[in-house]
Amino acid sequence: MQVLHQLPYTKDKDLLVGIETADDAGVYKLSDEMAVVSTLDFFPPIVDDPFLFGQIAAANSLSDIYAMGATPRLAMNIVCFPKELGLEVLGEIMRGSLDKLNEASALLIGGHSVEDTEVKYGLSVTGFVHPDKVITNRGARPGDVLVLTKPVGVGVITSALKAGRIDINDAEEAFESMRTLNKAASEVMVEVGVNACTDVTGYGVLGHAMEMAKGSEANLVIDTKDIKIFPQALGLINKKSNRPRTLMDNRDYVMKDVMKAVQIDEALELMLFDPQTSGGLLISVPEQRSEALLSGLRKRFVNPSIIGRVVEKEGEWRIRLE
Ligand code: CO
Ligand code: CO
Ligand code: CO
């Protein structure tokens, strides 16, 4: 958002990652050995089951810490809740959230709730990382390979489900993906050593790839056919009413800096802008380490795919679609 870029932010020599670079989390150096990583995310339910919603919201909030190559430790609730709904529902959301916080070995230490007309839930998460080991969205280098760790399409699937156009059983794969932590993916990338990372969330694959391209002052080439998509999502996206509200905004915002080298199927192109919740990590890794990254991820039951590469900055475009 343009207006947010012009505010008088205070600079500090120990602020390693601030608000300016649209990264996943802020990073502040405490000592030569330790930096603190801080993030916040909350949103209205995208599924009816409160336990599942809690799991997804927690996995999504933790993801920004994992995307920085950091370890989450502390978490605080952000709750908006209508009294009429009954506290059992909030209890289930919290139980789902704690299930994922426990899996992440992160502690819930507090939070805040307000009464509201609509449920919203999320977490502020604090993590830690060695100051030299921070992985930002600005480090992609020409020659790098781009790896994505989850399929895309959860936006269109959850929006079709909300409208009653698909059966809940057809969304199970998407649910499983959203409640899966990016913990293993993050640990493997830290171990292998990568140049840049961000998690794919509201701006879709191409929106987050664009932030990486601009932040890294490099261009990206995306092999659109190599992006894994949930099978039913491609069919659903053809129908306008299934498209999440922000999908076309994402496309309008990003496409002006995109060059299409080949004809791309319309459904596939739209899929690149599908807003994700608790999406995968988009990782830029030096080519000689890409095999180690892929095999390390597979060993931890992550199903990665190479979706493109980083090239020198040239021309009017920032991302070329192939
Ligand atoms: Co993020
Ligand atoms: Co976020
Ligand atoms: Co309070």
Describe this structure in words.
With 322 residues, the protein is of the alpha+beta class. Helix content is 35%, strand content 24%. The chain contains eleven helices and 13 strands. The protein has helices spanning 2-5, 50-67, 87-103, 154-162, 172-179, 183-192, 204-216, 231-237, 247-255, 266-271, 287-299, and strands spanning 15-17, 26-29, 35-43, 71-81, 107-115, 120-129, 144-148, 196-199, 219-222, 258-260, 281-286, 305-311, 319-321. The strands form two sheets. It has a seven-stranded mixed sheet with strand order 8-11-7-12-9-13-10, with helices on both faces. Strands 1-2-3-6-4-5 form a six-stranded mixed sheet, with helices on one face. The longest helix has 18 residues, at 50-67. It starts with a helix and ends with a strand. The mean pLDDT is 95. The structure holds cobalt (II) ion (3 copies). Residues 24, 64, 67, 198-199, 201 line the site of one cobalt (II) ion.
Reported for the largest beta sheet, the result is:
7 strands, mixed
Structural class of the secondary elements? alpha+beta
Q: Total strand count, please?
A: 13
What is the string of SSEs from the N terminus onward? Answer: HEEEHEHEEEHHHEHEHHEHEHEE
Largest beta sheet: what is the strand line-up? 8-11-7-12-9-13-10
Question: For the terminal residues, how far apart are their CA atoms?
Answer: 29 Å
Bound ligands: cobalt (II) ion
User: How big is the Rg?
Assistant: 19 Å
Spans of at least 5 consecutive residues whose pLDDT stays below 50 are none
**Mean of residue pLDDT values:** 95
Question: What's the number of helices?
Answer: 11
Could you estimate the helical fraction of the residues in percent? 25-40%
Inertia-based shape:
globular
Strand content bin: 15-25%
